[in-house]
Amino acid sequence: MSDRKFTFEVTKTASAPPATVFRLVSDGGRWSEWAKPIVLQSSWARQGDPAPGGVGAVRKLGMWPVFVQEETVEYEQDRRHVYKLVGARTPVKDYFGEVTLTPNPAGGTDIRWAGSFTEGARGTGRAMRAALGGAVKFFAGRLVRAAEREAGTAH
Protein backbone atom coordinates (compact mmCIF):
# COMPACT_ATOMS: atom_id res chain seq x y z
CA MET A 1 0.00 0.00 0.00
CA SER A 2 1.01 3.55 -0.61
CA ASP A 3 0.27 6.71 1.27
CA ARG A 4 1.24 9.18 -1.43
CA LYS A 5 -1.24 12.05 -1.77
CA PHE A 6 -2.17 13.60 -5.11
CA THR A 7 -4.18 16.71 -6.00
CA PHE A 8 -5.57 18.39 -9.09
CA GLU A 9 -7.50 21.56 -9.86
CA VAL A 10 -9.75 22.70 -12.70
CA THR A 11 -10.89 26.29 -13.18
CA LYS A 12 -13.67 27.59 -15.43
CA THR A 13 -15.75 30.73 -15.74
CA ALA A 14 -19.49 30.70 -16.36
CA SER A 15 -21.67 33.63 -17.38
CA ALA A 16 -24.38 32.19 -15.09
CA PRO A 17 -24.69 33.42 -11.48
CA PRO A 18 -23.25 31.37 -8.59
CA ALA A 19 -26.73 30.32 -7.40
CA THR A 20 -27.45 28.57 -10.70
CA VAL A 21 -24.07 26.83 -10.84
CA PHE A 22 -24.35 25.73 -7.21
CA ARG A 23 -27.87 24.41 -7.65
CA LEU A 24 -26.73 22.14 -10.49
CA VAL A 25 -23.47 20.86 -9.01
CA SER A 26 -24.90 20.17 -5.56
CA ASP A 27 -28.09 18.43 -6.74
CA GLY A 28 -27.26 14.75 -7.12
CA GLY A 29 -30.60 14.04 -8.70
CA ARG A 30 -29.89 16.38 -11.63
CA TRP A 31 -26.39 15.26 -12.65
CA SER A 32 -27.79 12.94 -15.34
CA GLU A 33 -29.31 16.03 -17.01
CA TRP A 34 -25.95 17.70 -17.64
CA ALA A 35 -23.07 15.23 -17.04
CA LYS A 36 -23.74 12.80 -19.90
CA PRO A 37 -22.35 10.56 -21.26
CA ILE A 38 -20.36 9.69 -18.12
CA VAL A 39 -23.32 10.08 -15.76
CA LEU A 40 -26.42 8.54 -17.33
CA GLN A 41 -28.18 7.94 -14.01
CA SER A 42 -28.17 10.08 -10.88
CA SER A 43 -30.17 9.98 -7.68
CA TRP A 44 -30.10 10.57 -3.96
CA ALA A 45 -29.06 7.60 -1.84
CA ARG A 46 -29.69 9.85 1.19
CA GLN A 47 -30.74 13.47 1.59
CA GLY A 48 -28.81 15.88 3.77
CA ASP A 49 -29.29 19.04 5.79
CA PRO A 50 -30.51 21.26 4.24
CA ALA A 51 -32.40 18.86 1.96
CA PRO A 52 -31.73 17.58 -0.49
CA GLY A 53 -27.99 18.15 -1.02
CA GLY A 54 -26.69 19.52 2.28
CA VAL A 55 -24.27 17.96 4.75
CA GLY A 56 -24.77 14.21 5.00
CA ALA A 57 -26.42 13.86 1.58
CA VAL A 58 -25.18 10.99 -0.58
CA ARG A 59 -25.56 11.21 -4.33
CA LYS A 60 -25.35 8.12 -6.54
CA LEU A 61 -23.86 8.79 -9.97
CA GLY A 62 -22.88 6.73 -12.99
CA MET A 63 -24.42 4.15 -15.24
CA TRP A 64 -25.42 0.59 -14.55
CA PRO A 65 -23.55 -1.44 -13.33
CA VAL A 66 -20.92 1.12 -12.24
CA PHE A 67 -21.99 3.76 -9.74
CA VAL A 68 -20.09 5.94 -7.31
CA GLN A 69 -21.50 7.49 -4.18
CA GLU A 70 -20.38 10.89 -2.95
CA GLU A 71 -21.26 12.28 0.46
CA THR A 72 -21.56 16.01 1.05
CA VAL A 73 -19.27 16.98 3.93
CA GLU A 74 -19.40 20.80 3.65
CA TYR A 75 -22.17 22.91 2.13
CA GLU A 76 -22.11 26.70 1.84
CA GLN A 77 -25.13 27.78 -0.20
CA ASP A 78 -24.15 29.26 -3.58
CA ARG A 79 -20.45 29.31 -2.59
CA ARG A 80 -18.85 25.96 -1.73
CA HIS A 81 -19.63 22.26 -1.96
CA VAL A 82 -17.22 19.65 -0.55
CA TYR A 83 -17.78 15.92 -0.98
CA LYS A 84 -16.01 12.62 -0.42
CA LEU A 85 -16.22 9.29 -2.19
CA VAL A 86 -17.94 6.69 0.00
CA GLY A 87 -18.78 3.02 -0.17
CA ALA A 88 -16.88 2.28 -3.34
CA ARG A 89 -14.04 -0.02 -4.17
CA THR A 90 -11.80 2.24 -6.21
CA PRO A 91 -8.11 2.47 -7.03
CA VAL A 92 -7.86 5.57 -4.80
CA LYS A 93 -8.39 6.18 -1.11
CA ASP A 94 -9.71 9.21 0.74
CA TYR A 95 -10.97 11.06 -2.34
CA PHE A 96 -12.30 14.55 -1.58
CA GLY A 97 -13.66 17.05 -4.10
CA GLU A 98 -14.28 20.74 -3.53
CA VAL A 99 -16.23 23.09 -5.78
CA THR A 100 -15.74 26.75 -4.90
CA LEU A 101 -17.81 29.44 -6.62
CA THR A 102 -16.77 33.09 -6.66
CA PRO A 103 -18.77 35.91 -8.26
CA ASN A 104 -16.78 37.22 -11.21
CA PRO A 105 -16.33 41.03 -11.33
CA ALA A 106 -17.41 41.00 -14.99
CA GLY A 107 -20.55 39.04 -14.08
CA GLY A 108 -21.04 35.33 -13.80
CA THR A 109 -19.05 32.87 -11.72
CA ASP A 110 -15.46 31.70 -11.37
CA ILE A 111 -15.44 27.97 -10.64
CA ARG A 112 -12.59 26.16 -8.90
CA TRP A 113 -13.05 22.38 -8.73
CA ALA A 114 -10.25 20.65 -6.85
CA GLY A 115 -9.70 17.06 -5.86
CA SER A 116 -7.34 15.16 -3.60
CA PHE A 117 -6.77 11.48 -2.92
CA THR A 118 -4.26 8.95 -1.69
CA GLU A 119 -3.11 6.40 -4.23
CA GLY A 120 -4.39 2.92 -3.50
CA ALA A 121 -1.39 1.08 -4.91
CA ARG A 122 2.10 2.46 -5.34
CA GLY A 123 2.67 3.80 -8.83
CA THR A 124 -0.99 4.42 -9.69
CA GLY A 125 -1.28 7.99 -8.41
CA ARG A 126 -0.21 9.88 -11.53
CA ALA A 127 -2.50 7.88 -13.80
CA MET A 128 -5.41 8.31 -11.40
CA ARG A 129 -4.71 12.06 -11.10
CA ALA A 130 -4.87 12.29 -14.91
CA ALA A 131 -8.08 10.24 -15.06
CA LEU A 132 -9.87 12.00 -12.21
CA GLY A 133 -8.64 15.44 -13.28
CA GLY A 134 -9.81 14.73 -16.83
CA ALA A 135 -13.22 13.63 -15.60
CA VAL A 136 -13.57 16.76 -13.45
CA LYS A 137 -12.49 18.95 -16.39
CA PHE A 138 -15.22 17.29 -18.48
CA PHE A 139 -17.82 17.75 -15.71
CA ALA A 140 -16.81 21.40 -15.17
CA GLY A 141 -17.27 22.14 -18.87
CA ARG A 142 -20.68 20.45 -18.91
CA LEU A 143 -21.64 22.27 -15.71
CA VAL A 144 -20.80 25.66 -17.26
CA ARG A 145 -22.88 24.94 -20.37
CA ALA A 146 -25.85 23.68 -18.34
CA ALA A 147 -25.75 26.62 -15.92
CA GLU A 148 -25.57 29.14 -18.77
CA ARG A 149 -28.49 27.45 -20.55
CA GLU A 150 -30.54 27.43 -17.35
CA ALA A 151 -29.72 31.07 -16.56
CA GLY A 152 -30.27 32.20 -20.15
CA THR A 153 -26.72 33.58 -20.37
CA ALA A 154 -25.27 31.13 -22.93
CA HIS A 155 -23.04 32.77 -25.51
Overview features:
single chain; 26% helix; seven-stranded antiparallel beta sheet; 41% strand; globular; 155 residues; Alpha-D-Glucose-1,6-Bisphosphate, Chain A, domain 4; alpha+beta
Shape: globular
- The CATH topology annotation reads as Alpha-D-Glucose-1,6-Bisphosphate, Chain A, domain 4
Helical fraction equals: 25-40%
Major pleated sheet: 7 strands, antiparallel
| Name given to the CATH homologous superfamily | START domain
The name of the CATH architecture is 2-Layer Sandwich
Structural class: alpha+beta
- Compute the separation of the termini in Å: 47 Å
* Structural domain tally: 1
E-strand count: 7
Low confidence ranges: none
Q: Which class in CATH terms?
A: Alpha Beta
Mean pLDDT: 93
Give me the number of helical elements: 3
Strand order of the largest sheet: 1-7-6-5-4-3-2
Alpha carbon gyration radius: 15 Å
Give the helices and strands as they follow along the chain.
Answer: EHHEEEEEEH
Percent strand equals 35-45%
Task: Offer a concise description of the structure.
With 155 residues, this protein is α+β, with helices and mostly antiparallel strands. It contains three helices and seven strands; from the N terminus they run βααββββββα.
Question: What would you note in describing this structure?
Answer:
With 155 residues, the protein is α+β, with helices and mostly antiparallel strands. It has one domain: START domain (Alpha-D-Glucose-1,6-Bisphosphate, Chain A, domain 4, 2-Layer Sandwich). 26% of the residues lie in helices and 41% in strands. Strand 6 (92-103) and strand 7 (109-119) form a beta hairpin. The longest helix is centred in the C-terminal third of the chain and has 27 residues, at 125-151. The model has no long low-confidence stretch (mean pLDDT 93). This is SRPBCC family protein. InterPro entries: Polyketide_cyclase/dehydratase (IPR019587), START-like_dom_sf (IPR023393).
